[in-house]
Design a protein that fits this description.
By secondary structure, the protein is of the alpha/beta class. It has one domain: 3-Layer(aba) Sandwich (Rossmann fold). It is built from nine helices and ten strands. The longest helix has 29 residues, at about 115-140. The radius of gyration is 21 Å and the shape is globular.
Length: about 325
């Protein structure tokens, strides 16, 4: 088990009841940092995490007791409970948990090793799940809160060489969709954010992970590999605008389960949903033919949005 080390911050620095307190993982770069700065600039308080305390001292100097930095690797699931306790001790409560930490990975199914695939799941599913489990008792006792799961357009649609990354994000979205219905009765909201390309370090050398290349796939994914590396510094998404959108959506009377970010995400997801619906309709005759003749479609108790669950009748 890795040790959590308090990098900066004060246990006495509790937030006013009229302000949100945010816990944001991976908050020293990218959308995590931009969201942390947006909250701090609005007079709110932030507990930020990162594997390395890069920038913690500067943020502490700029924002004082409203900022606390904790060194934590999101893959340290055993340490999640202690880390959440540190966060609550530092600022008194957690109103919004943002699971942002993670990284991209490029490689075909044959190129990505078991270890590399497992790492994507640890960063994008197991780590966030452990933090949610640790934070939920506190949020339930407080009578509400919000959980923001930073996914990707790649959490709903995938393409060659993105399989290992999408595996983690698809898993996060499925897990979070169930979570949405489980915690809604307690006043806790769940928002899955699905960004396209934003001008962060996501695509930069040393941040984006690359599997070992097999020359047999050069003709299949060569252009995709080049495309994944090319946009660094030229992405169309504005991180500051993205942070503002997330904050505005969380303040809506009814928070949606999913919020795409960026025009590319809207276009890609619209196309994917349309293609999936068309494929379902095309093959529907084959699908329903698998049931016993004359059977009515089942009405299950686990329909999305239910606030209470009635045991299903035996099938």
């Amino acid at each position: 088990m890795r040790e959590n080390n308090m990098a900066t911050g004060s246990a006495a620095g509790t937030a006013s009841k009229n302000q949100k307190t945010w816990l944001i993982t991976g908050a020293t770069s990218g959308l995590g940092k931009t969201l942390a700065l947006a909250a701090l600039d609005s007079g709110e308080s932030v507990v930020a995490t990162a594997r390395r305390p890069r920038g913690f001292a500067e943020m502490r100097e700029a924002y004082g007791d409203r900022f606390t930095g904790i060194v934590h690797d999101v893959r340290d699931t055993e340490g999640a409970g202690g880390f959440v306790k540190q966060a609550i001790a530092a600022l008194g409560r957690i109103d919004v948990l943002v699971n942002n930490a993670g990284a991209g990975q490029v490689g075909t199914a044959e190129e990505v090793t078991d270890g590399q695939l497992r790492d994507m799941l640890e960063q994008h599913l197991y780590g966030p799940a452990a933090l949610v489990r640790a934070a939920l008792p506190h949020m339930r006792a407080a009578g509400g809160g919000a959980i923001v799961q930073m996914s990707s357009q790649g959490g709903r649609t995938s393409f060659p060489a993105a399989g290992s990354y999408s595996a983690g994000k698809f898993a996060l979205e499925g897990w979070s969709e169930a979570l949405f219905g489980e915690v809604a009765p307690f006043g806790i909201r769940v928002l899955i954010v699905e960004p396209s390309r934003f001008r962060t370090e996501f695509n930069s050398a040393g941040v984006l992970n690359w599997a070992g290349k097999k020359v047999e796939y050069d003709g299949v994914v060569g252009a995709i590999r080049q495309d994944m590396a090319a946009p660094d510094g030229a992405q169309e998404g504005d991180p500051e605008r993205a942070a503002e959108v997330i904050r505005r959506v969380l303040d809506l009377p009814e928070v949606p389960l999913r919020q795409p970010l960026g025009a590319e995400a809207v276009a890609n997801l619209s196309r994917t949903y349309g293609e999936n619906l068309a494929a379902l309709e095309k093959m529907k005759e084959y699908s329903v033919a698998a049931d016993f003749p004359g059977m009515k479609a089942a009405q299950r108790a686990f329909r999305q949005g239910a606030t209470s669950v009635t045991p299903a009748e035996p099938t």
